[in-house]
Amino acid sequence: MSGTAHAAHHDAPHQPVFVGKVKDKLDALFPKYPTRMACLLPALWMVQEERGWISADAIAEVATVLGLTPAYVRGVATFYTMYHLHPVGRHFIQVCGTSPCHLCGSDEVMKAILQQTGCGEVGATSPDDRFTVVEVECLGACGFATPILVDDDFHDSVTPERVAGILARYP
Amino acid sequence: MGFPHPSHSKETVVLSKYFGDADARTYAGWVKRGGYEALKKALGMTPEAIIEEIKASGLRGRGGAGFPTGMKWSFMPKGDNKPHYLVCNADESEPGTFKDRELMRWTPHQLIEGCAIGAYAIGAERCYIYIRGEFTEPWHVMTKAVEEAYTNGALGANVFGSGKRIDIVLHRGAGAYICGEETAMMNSIEGRRGNPRIKPPFPAVAGLFGMPTTINNVETLTAVCHILNRGSAWYKGLCLSSPKSTGTKLFSVCGHVMKPGNYEVTMGFPMKDLIHDLAGGMRPGRRLKAVIPGGSSVPIMNAAEAEAALCDYEGIVAQGSMLGSAGFIVMDDSADIVYEIYRLAKFYAHESCAQCTQCREGTAWTTKILERILKGQGKREDLDLLLDLSEQMTGKTICVLSDSCATPIVSGIKKFPEEFDAYLSRAKAPALAAV
Ligand SMILES: Cc1cc2nc3c(=O)[nH]c(=O)nc-3n(C[C@H](O)[C@H](O)[C@H](O)COP(=O)(O)O)c2cc1C
Ligand code: SF4
Ligand code: FES
Description:
Chain A is an alpha+beta fold and 171 residues long.
């Protein structure tokens, strides 16, 4: 079970991400691509893995490390839905809602998740900051409806009855 | 094999033979099952001979367009002294499709082997496998398998002592259906927004990093291993109907069937058997209403069309739709066609990269109009408006996402007019709450 790192406070000074092991990981990627810019998606993933979300300061750091401008990095980051440009709850839940899963009852799964996490509505974070729940498009597992992702863990064939058991694993 | 269901006697199990068999995931397990023999054989052939073999097999791309694979490979320039790239499309995001996920999660070495053969055939030393960001499990399985392949000399500077260099780099997407489009994928690998590029230039001329590039789907590349092992004549012989559609194919069947899963059958297999027998048919007391067979981007079929269709590129066209990515979205008589089409339009509106006006505006407006109909606020003219918008969204944009949104709408209105009428006449209660 993988927990996303806690959301950092807005006002804390930015601690560089690309130092030590994380820097080594990024450096190891450079030979795999002919340009530094190509390491942008992986670099953004590294930030998110370390910090739970990608702050404006982190965007500026990525830009410096890869020789890009912050505006460019932000432009790319905003294109992709999986990068969190705002803090999210400790656990991030993605529930598929596209037609194949809708046919198989994804609405009921979503309802159960919203209720039991205390999020109340799609896109919200629970008052205890434990969960953020979003609806996403087809997760490529339509034969295992309804799939949900909790952080990096993929759960297949989720039914409203299974929700409580799954949530209990994410304190 | 429709994992987790056991293999069905009517399946022709080639690519999916080891689904559910965890030992096949390891290098040693794969070798024990005859793995990497195809790559060794390929390294003893000339690239031209491999391309001829693939051409002769009749293999067509499994990513959606069905372009002949051998021909695609032959477009790559020779002796140009530029780096060439192979890109493996593992972005699988087309609603209804979930076959590449299973191929990667159970048989990662099958894909690595196919990529290595493809790379060698097109003169590439490097292959990028672009895996959608949400595929966390396939990502971990593939990462481990690639490491093992390097350790065992199946990848690296001197593949199996042949003197040939082949590297595989896994690249993780970050949530964007459009990155499955080949030129958007190249932009995404380059560290850009995933906007499709205008063609020409075609990827074989100027693709990834401006270099000659071939892009193939996961299933296409895995099939290559078996063609080399067993020969093009064998593969070509796997054909139940049109000679233009050969081999086996994984059909992802989902929605209202008792046993959703990936079923591997010979091209030309009857759709009726696939749905009613292999996938377990409808739930008790239910009957088939509709199938969208190509993933969601193709015309919707009514029950009669679906039950008459043969599952290959030509057979599905003959019944008014397209094979596409072969993800069958099955709907029984409880399904609300208008709602499901609305939900698909919403999908396309969410996924449009927004660089073409017709697509950006068209996907958003068709969604809003369908929403209005579902709220019980639709007007008769709305159907004409939808058809008119769809017309303007078709054939006019940089990529076909725009067309893909229009297709289910147009075919839905044509084939299920009574379902729209029920909302327009207020005979049916609104499916969405009016605000
Ligand atoms: C909007 C859009 C999305 C696509 N998504 C995928 C995808 O998820 N996987 C895939 O293999 N091909 C996808 N394709 C098709 C690719 O552009 C490309 O044709 C294919 O990967 C080529 O491989 P093949 O020749 O082996 O089929 C998509 C195309 C479009 C227009
Ligand atoms: S058709 Fe849509 S998704 Fe395709 S390039 Fe144009 S705006 Fe982007
Ligand atoms: S529609 Fe839900 S996983 Fe495909």
